[in-house]
Amino acid sequence: MLIFTACAPEPDTDFDLSNAHIIDTRERPQWAIRHVEGARHIDWDCIVLGVQELGIGESESIVLYGSSASAAGRAETSLRNMDYVKVRNAGSLDQAADLLGRPIVRPEVTAPDADDEAIHAACTERRQIRGGL
């Protein structure tokens, strides 16, 4: 009899919600219109590249949210496959705001910072290399 076990790390129970990195995985224009206070934007399909660009370590707490729980779940799976263990899928924008106890901000103008621009550029380049996928 063969027994298969999952290679993904077990979720860490020592999750620090108050100091977690908050990442919005929705489309960039959605993030620019409204997002959870303190959230960074990384497209779900560039999540691993994005957290590495930001210098977020595998043992740091990360809260993800997206258009839905399943959208954020794709990003969560990608991170867990790369040995990130303190990852929590908060679901949608409203669910994340409730979980974190933070307001949803609607800035008049949201100028991306240098890190956001670098991540967006690297993600765009990666998509072009992969043939626009």
Automatic annotation (TrEMBL):
This is Rhodanese-like domain-containing protein. Residues 16-105 form the Rhodanese domain. InterPro entries: Rhodanese-like_dom, Rhodanese-like_dom_sf. SUPFAM superfamilies: Rhodanese/Cell cycle control phosphatase (SSF52821). Pfam families: Rhodanese. It comes from Natronospirillum operosum.
